[in-house]
Amino acid sequence: MHNLMKLPLITAIGVAAVTVGVGTYYFTAEPSHPPVAKEKQGHALEDTSATAKEQETAPGDLEKIEKKETKSIPKFSDDTSKYAGSYRCWSYNVSGGGGGNCRLFAPLVLKSNGLYSLSSEAGTFSVEGNTMYLSESKIRGSGTLLEGGLQIRFEYDYNGWHHVLTYLKESANEENEKSSAAISGGKYVEVTLHIVYPAGDSSADSVNTVTIYPKEGGPQVAQSLAYATDRQTTEVWFSKRPPKTGLLTGKVYKVMVGSGFGEWQVGELDLLGVLDNVERTIIATLSKSSSGDL
Fold first, then answer.
1. 167-195 pLDDT, tens per residue?
2. Computed over its alpha carbons, how large is the radius of gyration of the chain?
3. Exposure winner among 49, 169, 217, 264, fewest CB in 10 A?
4. What distances in angstroms separate CA 130 from CA 65, 89, 146, 260, one per listed residue?
5. What is the 3-state secondary structure (H, E, C) of the chain?
6. Beta 209-214 vs 252-258: how paired, if at all?
7. Can you tell me the distance from the alpha carbon of 96 to that of 55, in angstroms, rounded to the nearest whole number?
8. pTM for this model (two decimals)
């Protein structure tokens, strides 16, 4: 009983010692509450476990964000119906030199519904400002509108050569012309004109278009390319070959000639009572010099 007995029991709280007689006995007191350090450590482990669970969450469990469709802002485009008609090649230039006669080239036909055709090429066209875009034009590219849309010029490089190709409008909107025929009760016929200028007047050398207007005034009815048969005579043909429709009978028209630098009247065309295709000669009553146009 008097032997020295030591019980070094150490806890996180501490050690208590009691001396009984000659002997000293050591004992520990069991804490009534869990150690604070363990409690904090336990919370830390729980937090780590929760974070791990969040990281293991499958992508499909996350809230899906709705993807909104984005649309590009459309460019301003002009009304294509006002450009509808047939455009014939007027001039062709290659690298500053002559390109030869292009007036037998296939016409560029623009429809009021935005479709176009050029020989075997067909597609859609649009206009932005003074630029015309042809959807299937791979070589010529876009064209430039001149003189309020009466001319379309293409400039492009091909096989090392610079090309400038200009088309001239020679007929108006076919749909509008057919509507006019139904209203007026007339019919469309082909008209060939021979315009003879006064002696000494060489206007035939510069005239390249003939345009027809209603006598009472209004927008042009038709336009076609003109050819000089001699220095005093211009010949022009208003055909009915699609997409052109000829001229509507039962009306009187003003006949205007142009050179690209001006336009002037040379006479009138009377189609009252006409029932079939006609050929007429017009003696020019007003020359370019006397009209004041240069």
1. 988 765 545 555 555 555 678 899 999 99
2. 47
3. 217
4. 44, 19, 8, 18
5. CCCCCCCCCCCCCCCEEEEECCEEEEECCCCCCCCHHHHHHHHHHHHHHHHHHHHCCCHHHCCCCCCCCCCCCCCCCCCHHHHCEEEEEEEEEECCEECCCCCCCCCEEECCCCEEEECCEEEEEEEECCEEEECCCCCCCCEEEEHHHCEEEEEEEECCEEEEEEEEEEECCHHHHHHHHHHHCCCEECEEEEEECCCCCCHHHCCCEEEEEECCCCCCCEEEEEEEEECCEEEEEECCCCCCCCEECCCEEEEEEECCCCEEEEEEEECCCCCCCEEEEEECCCCHHHHCCC
6. antiparallel
7. 72
8. 0.45
Judge contact between 192 and 281, C-beta under 8 A: no
pLDDT tens profile 189-211 = 999 999 999 988 888 888 988 99
Fold classification of 174-288 (topology level): Immunoglobulin-like (2.60.40)
Amino acid type, 76 = F
Token pair 């390319």: residue: 225
- Give the residue extent of every domain in the chain: 1-29, 80-171, 174-288
Any idea which architecture 80-171 has in CATH? Beta Barrel (2.40)
